[in-house]
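From the pipeline queue, job 12 of 40. The input is one protein chain; the requested action is below.

Action: predict structure.
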Amino acid sequence: MDSTSPKPAARPRPDDSREERLKAALKANIARRKAQARVRVRQAAGDADETDNENT
């Protein structure tokens, strides 16, 4: 090999890509859980309103 041959491109470490995937999955999971919690709060508030209306 001569000294002018291009060197292979450095590949990212597998640990880095795994960490990035886990980070993205965690972020998506948290967002999904927050959305589910918001729906539950709205449903509970809606149920409370319906119960109040039935008593009047």
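Job complete. The longest helix spans residues 14-55.
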